[in-house]
């Protein structure tokens, strides 16, 4: 293993995704370019929405912004969904496995370093050694993906609950506004009745 691969190995070996792999396994994946480490500059977009890309990114350090294009009155606007900072964030995993277009863009907001896993290359490269690596690597990867899905489902449940609360609040506000309008109309009607009575009394006296 040359110096460059040695340095990359030190960064990768500490990640949970690779904890079931031996030093030789990681070295082989590095040598086959199935995994590598890439540094992205500030404001560099490394995942582009609607693009086709079979790579997964895991942050080693830095900060990224996840955004999505929205069409508002025939104009495209970039909507920031969230920012992630630090080590261990998985990015682009769904599109990498499904082969479907990216659903959001990811941009480095400061110098950011990622481990990049080429899923397409991993699937296509066949050898006895790599098959052995896949049998150890895939379970860790799928476990991480399932955890991400659970987190997404949990976030979705919370979002739905918030929507229901908002709906109830809006409904409550609408009812309150209706009641206020009815009270105002009743008060107004009462005042009109009082005016009519006053006019009648004035006419009688006149």
Structure description:
The structure is a single chain. This protein is an alpha+beta fold. The chain is 53% helix and 24% strand. The protein is rod-shaped.
- The termini sit apart by 115 Å
SSE order, one letter for each helix or strand: HHEEEEEEHEEHH
- How would the global form be characterised? rod-shaped
> Radius of gyration over alpha carbons?
30 Å
Label the structural class: alpha+beta
Oligomeric form: single chain
Spans of at least 5 consecutive residues whose pLDDT stays below 50 are: none
Percentage beta strand: 15-25%
Number of extended strands: 8
SS element count, helices:
5
State the major sheet: 4 strands, antiparallel
Mean model confidence by pLDDT = 77
Strand order of the largest sheet: 1-8-3-6
Helix coverage percent of residues?
Answer: 40-55%
Concise overview:
By secondary structure, the protein is α+β, with helices and mostly antiparallel strands.
